Amino acid sequence: MRRFIVYALVCVFGSFGTSLQAQDFPSRPIQVVVPMAAGSGTDIHARILMEELRKVLNTPIVIVNKPGAFMTVGTDAVAKSKKDGYTLLYAPATGITYSRALEPDTVPYDSIKDLEPLGLHAFFPVVIGVSAKSPWKTLREFVEEGKKNPGKIRISTPGLQTTSSFNVMIIEGLTGAKFLQVPYKNLVMGVTDMLEGQVEATTQSLSVMAPYLAAGKVRILVTSRKMKAFPDIPVLDELGYKRELFSPWFAMYAPAGVPQEVVKILVPAIKAAMDSPEVVARINKIGGSVIEYKSPEELRKMEIEEIETISALAIKMGLRK
């Protein structure tokens, strides 16, 4: 009986102590892990956002870069960190959905079970384009050619395990067209070879294609995300298809199990920082991304859908069993 009373008191006061700690949050510096090198696009976006989040939370924030292993090293470090809200993650989709979908047996964490979503920050539109001299003026004309002559249209991509590559497969699945993917390590060469006729089309991030679009050298047939700067470039939904293409994205996470009192402080603070006009203006000046906040619930739903779709496509491509 005495042991039971002692145990009950430990549980009560332990819970009480945790509650008090959560009420005081944050009372010391927060560490934000970025699973890419300093100076990368992810790192630059994270540093701009954290400058604002410091002001919102009124506490120091230290960024720690932990690149490696398809962005799983830093992600795993956060998943296994202390569940107190003082270690957070700012990460791209690669270490959250793609690694889970492509190498489920080797990734040391379950991104759905081991990480608590706090909010999505930005998307990076991926486009499919052709030469301005190409006979295809619209995606439907392009698709019709891919149906009439399967495999004849060659599309340069950044690789077979990339968002661009999976988007080509999504279009094939929706339309019945068939294209020949040609992987390029050099992204710019994938575009210049298209302009020189080595391939008929290319799929790249908008940031890679923007200079050629401004020069009138390419025609963009579809984008994965609607962009205010390019209102005439359609997304799949506007063309009558039932789904959209994938876009790389950046989002924030905590390790699963962080007290809900802490989550309730972090989520609105992160949203306020992401929505800050100063943050939006600085990131828009860099270009290439679309600031579009998504709530933790929306982010989790999107993660699950991406993992399921990418897994199915990867199996179809022979990239995994």
Task: Give the helices and strands, then pairings.
Elements: H1 2-23, E1 30-34, H2 41-57, E2 61-65, H3 72-79, E3 87-92, H4 98-102, H5 111-114, E4 115-123, E5 126-131, H6 139-148, E6 154-157, H7 163-175, E7 180-183, H8 187-195, E8 201-205, H9 206-214, E9 218-223, E10 249-255, H10 260-275, H11 277-286, E11 290-294, H12 296-317
Parallel strand pairs: 1-2, 1-3, 6-7, 6-8
Antiparallel strand pairs: 3-10, 4-10, 4-11, 5-8, 5-9
Can you give me a brief rundown of this structure?
This protein is of the alpha/beta class. It has helices at 2-23, 41-57, 72-79, 98-102, 111-114, 139-148, 163-175, 187-195, 206-214, 260-275, 277-286, 296-317, and strands at 30-34, 61-65, 87-92, 115-123, 126-131, 154-157, 180-183, 201-205, 218-223, 249-255, 290-294.
Annotation keywords:
single chain, 321 residues, alpha/beta, D-Maltodextrin-Binding Protein, domain 2, 2 domains, six-stranded mixed beta sheet, five-stranded mixed beta sheet, 11 strands, 19% strand, globular
Walk me through this protein's architecture.
The protein is an alpha/beta fold. The chain has two domains: 193 residues, Bordetella uptake gene, domain 1 (D-Maltodextrin-Binding Protein, domain 2), CATH 3.40.190.150; 114 residues, D-Maltodextrin-Binding Protein, domain 2 (3-Layer(aba) Sandwich). The strands form two sheets. A six-stranded mixed beta sheet has the order 2-1-3-10-4-11, with helices on both faces. Helix 2 links the parallel strand 1 and strand 2. Helix 2 packs across helix 10 and helix 2 runs antiparallel to helix 11. About 2% of the residues have low confidence.
